[in-house]
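Researcher: Please translate sequence to structure tokens.
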Amino acid sequence: MKAVTIRGVEPEVAEKLKKSAAKKGKSVNQFTIDIIKESLGMQKKKKYSREFTDLDDLFGRWSEAEFKEISSRINKERRIDQEIWA
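Model: Translation complete:
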């Protein structure tokens, strides 16, 4: 693969690239390559990007109070009993 150096990148642009790459969970290099490919029409489309919602009504959601209660119980179970492990 060919290496390309881009000169004259303003600090604001570089910082925005870093933040945008971090949000996507990518390196700045990979993020930049993706942007270039997309702008040139070379980005491959994902085959399996479709989202299904037909089973959503079978699953519920926790309220904030329920989530806190469940998280609290799970965290209690994660504690290490020092008397047993010491």
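Researcher: Any highlights?
Model: DSSP finds four helices and no strands in the chain.
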